[in-house]
From TrEMBL:
It comes from the Bacteria. SUPFAM superfamilies: Acyl-CoA N-acyltransferases (Nat) (SSF55729). InterPro entries: Acyl_CoA_acyltransferase, GNAT_dom. The keyword Thylakoid does not apply. Keywords: Transferase. The keyword Metal-binding does not apply. GO terms for molecular function: acyltransferase activity, transferring groups other than amino-acyl groups. This is N-acetyltransferase. Residues 11-175 form the N-acetyltransferase domain.
Length: 177
């Protein structure tokens, strides 16, 4: 049995802690992230604090799982990774990942996604994970395809960003055993 699904030689994934409030608040309220979500107004600290306090950190209870991505060399939280829209009866969920700007391009997202996929498929026995990626988001397309996700659909004019509609690729990774 694998020692831990939540750590490799560079990062670890951990549950959210109360001290993560400011970082989560900052990331959720970054308007540059809103084009990949369905949220269009800022969260208050109060709402984010309630979210942290009320999360049971149980994917089956919450129907989602959010973990912090922490760099091992200095213990800094560099982002979050999620499974949302968890459907236990169908053994599937949707992946989301955000890396703080100053830590992008160093391979941390791939490390986190690899760990999350191992946990989802080998421990939780999910059948599949999906992700929606804007077709012009080359970095995210490379990330997910490098971790075994395959494009299975195209959603035309799916996102409205800065006055223009963008296409979104639907990518899927299916556990084969």
């Amino acid at each position: 049995m694998k020692h831990s699904y939540f750590i490799n030689d560079r990062i670890r994934l951990r549950a959210m802690e109360p001290e993560d409030l400011e970082l989560i608040y900052e990331m959720e309220n970054d308007p540059q992230q809103w084009d990949i979500s369905n949220f269009t107004v800022p969260y208050s600290r109060y709402v984010m604090k309630q979210y942290l306090e009320n999360s049971q950190c149980d994917m089956f209870a919450d129907k989602q799982l959010r973990m912090m991505i922490v760099r091992l060399e200095d213990g800094v939280a560099i982002g979050t990774i999620d499974i949302t829209d968890f459907a236990p009866i169908h053994a599937r969920g949707e992946v989301g990942i955000v890396i703080r700007k100053e830590f992008r391009g160093a391979g941390y997202a791939k490390d986190a996604l690899t760990l999350l996929c191992e946990y989802a498929f080998d421990f939780l026995y999910l059948k599949q994970l999906i992700v929606h990626v804007a077709t012009d988001n080359e970095a995210s397309m490379r990330l997910f395809t490098s971790c075994g996700f395959v494009q299975c659909g195209l959603l035309k004019d799916w996102l409205f960003v800065e006055g223009c509609f963008k296409d979104v690729a639907l990518l899927q990774r299916i556990r084969m055993n």
